[in-house]
Amino acid sequence: MSGPGSRSPHHVPPARRIVPHLKPTVVEPPVPQPAPVEPAAVMASPVAAPMAPAAGDTVVQRPPAGLAEPGAAMAPRAGAAQAVERMHLESVWLAYGDRWVVRDVTLPVRQGEVLALIGASGSGKTTLLRSLNRLTEITAGAARAGRITLDGDEIDGLEVNDLRRRVSMVFQQPNPFPMSVFENVAYPLREERSAQRRRRRLGLPGRGPGRAEMQAAVAEALRRAGLYDEVGDNLDRAALRLSGGQQQRLCIARSLAARPEVLLLDEPCSALDPISTATIEELIVGLRESVAVVIVTHNLQQAMRVADHVAFMHLGELVEYGTSRQVFGEPRQQRTREYVSGAFG
Amino acid sequence: MASAAPTVPAPAPKPPPGLYRASLTRDSVRTWPLSDRIAYLLCWGVGIGLCLIAVAIVVFFAVEGLSYLSVHLLFTHENASPNQSSSGGILDPLEGTLILTAVAILIAAPLGVAVGVWLSEYARPAWLARLVESAVDMIAGTPDILLALFALVIFARPAFAFLSSRSENGAVVGKSFLTAGITLSLIAMPMIVGSTREALALLPNHLREASHALGKTRARTVRKVLLPLVRPDYARGATLGMGRIMADTAIVIYVLGATERLFSAGGPFPLSVLRGEGTTLTSYVYQNSPAGEGFAPQKAYAAAFVLLAFVVALNLLALFIGNRGERDRRSVWRAIASLGGIRRP
Questions:
Q1: Which residue in A304, A335, B190, B289 is a FRET match for A223, CA 20 to 30 A apart?
Q2: CATH top class, domain B68-340
């Protein structure tokens, strides 16, 4: 294998199923700065200073999310403190058939903050998102190169359904199952229960969630998704009878029920009205302490409102990655500047 | 002068003359070209004609059959007697029809649903799926008399002695409710495969994705999400299949024996009947028609009416189940369409 730089920048490695050790040639690293940005650095940046509370540099009091605070609606939010890296993408390439749709993306995904993937249609952000829990593998002809790790383990080495329980996903369209609200949220827990029962039959230790525990888990997931107050009185109602925003929050509750480490959101508000959107944005920001959140969005204002870090993708390449403040306030790349100012997209 | 206000209420507004009423059939047949008008008339005529034929069949057998039908006829065994008044009733063929239908549908329904699910959800390798599809179509198109001949050859082999009985010289008879039921299940299976498969294909893909994203296996998704949704569809397929089973004559005559009474093959109760030969309403009608040996047209009419009543009842049931399934599915699609404007494919 020839050294880096000997190939043209347009060279792409041949598509293969999963190639863990294939190192695609990168002439120009897409990330100008070392990717991880310390929370302290966020605080020290001049843009952050006026917004930052004087609470000290380790614990930052988060302002109420999104539309809740009129003044903060358009301004990038301050970053959360104590972000822990859960997933890491290293030189990830993704292809459908022989067409590369994501080229050489290196990114951290951290708990304690919200990462927004922005970019025009066809920039590969949804594909990148779906690769994080290997949902791309459902599509025939999808291929990947590069490493993706979850808590240090390569995701290819994990059992795929185990991975998807740990890295859960919410889609653009609210897609509750045509069952009751309770059954929807209990669905991810059910198998656990039968697996536990199997274990018990085999005489192995560990007791599965009983009826009361199941109810508690469902109620907790609904509370975390901010839906319990609205539907808690009757969990047996059909999920499809809920409003669109409620359905989407139900989907979030369903994803949270199995206590994932990472929550992927694929344009979760694009099918919703502004009020439901505000509720969900508030919810997303509230969730970031307990779960790493990655959100794909077309909506720059939304990215500004919810994200701590922003990755701007264009035609499959990661053009810029940085704090929300930096990417929106002082983008380093020309293309980012054009995109966030609305020149294209 | 406030009192100048009109004290007489203004007359209710009248619609303007020549009110235009929107109508779907606004273009008058008179404006159509002659060929279209002729074709339209033919369609009408054929449709009405089919209705008339259906009504005529029911009325004919109702009139002919009801005049001879009695409780006595329904609940007495048949007797070989030259005297019609002492030759007994149709209890045996009635029982035979019910037993045979039950055996055949119990075999056809689970297998048919399984094949339908496999064709819709798995279908790998692709060549095998194509082969299975062609095989199902071929079985659906095979004349039942050929199936009957083939089944008789197969089931008379010593290896299948457990499905039927042995004659006095030790040869395997090959005729029994079990062998006939297996053969008849081939008649019903294509309808169940088709209805399951088509209903699954109509389900929106995001239901599957949502389940996968929660870390559920494909099998789990099918069992817990997809199959409950298409239950009305395969129930409808099974109901129509039962109608086909009841209506079949050739297989009954060849593989069930078309005896006068149900024969016991010996052994414990349910097996003794299932392994024995028997008769059904169709073969009874055939044998008592002017073409058969029995020659008791009145009884044939009465039996035919009973059979017709069963088949019509099954068709109505299928219609009812189908309507309900359509309503359920519509509610799913309505819920989706109300959120994102997705059109049903």
A1: A304
A2: mainly alpha
Res A50 pLDDT > 50: no
Closest Cα in chain A, distance from residue B132 (Å): 21
Claim to verify: residue A163 and residue A188 sit in the same structural domain: no
**Residues A170 and A275 reside in one and the same domain:** yes
Do residues A84 and A164 share a domain? yes
* pLDDT, average across residues A149-170: 91
What is the average pLDDT across A20-37? 40
Contact A248, A283 (CB under 8 A): no
pLDDT tens, position by position, A57-69: 333 344 434 333 3
Residue A196 lies in a domain: yes
Q: Does pLDDT of A37 surpass 90? A: no
For residue B263, report the phi and psi dihedrals to the nearest 5 degrees.
Answer: -100, 140
Shortest distance, CA A218 to any CA of chain B (angstroms): 15
Phi, psi of A78 (to 5 degrees): -75, 150
pLDDT at position B266: 77
Residue A265, H or E segment:
strand A262-266
Which of A191, A211, A241 lies at the terminal end of a domain, its last residue?
A: A241
Closest CA to A114 of A305, A336, A334, A248: A305
- Judging contacts by C-beta atoms under 8 Å, the chain A residues touching residue B335 are 240, 247
**pTM of the predicted protein model:** 0.73
- Per-position DSSP letters for B207-233, written without gaps between them: HHHHHHHTT--HHHHIIIIIHHHHHHH
Any idea where the domains of chain B sit in the sequence?
68-340
A30 and A95 share a domain? yes
Q: Which amino acid, A148? A: I
pLDDT at A206: 54
Express as a percent the part of chain B with pLDDT over 70.
86
Q: The tokens of B159 are what? A: 């290896």
Let me know whether A227 and A312 are in one domain. Answer: no
Give the ipTM of the model, two decimals please.
0.70
Closest chain A residue to B335, measured at CA: A240
Structure tokens at B109: 């329904």
Over residues B200-209, the mean pLDDT reads 90
User: Which residues of A are less than 8 Å from B328 in CB distance?
Assistant: 178
Q: Are residues A189 and A333 in the same domain?
A: no
The reply to whether A232 and A311 lie within a common domain is no
A47 CA: distance to closest CA in chain B (Å): 38
Verify that A159 and A276 share a domain, yes or no: yes
**Section B67-73 average pLDDT:** 85
Interface residues on A facing B, Cβ-Cβ cutoff 8 A: 133, 135, 138, 161-166, 168-179, 187-188, 190-191, 240, 244, 247, 251, 254-255, 258, 264, 271-272
Domains in chain A: how many in total? Answer: 2
Please name the member of A170, A178, A271 whose beta carbon is closest to the beta carbon of B229.
A178
pLDDT number for residue B332: 65
What three-state secondary structure class fits A295? strand
Confidence class for position A76, pLDDT limits 50, 70, 90: very low
Task: Decide if A59 is inside a domain.
Answer: no
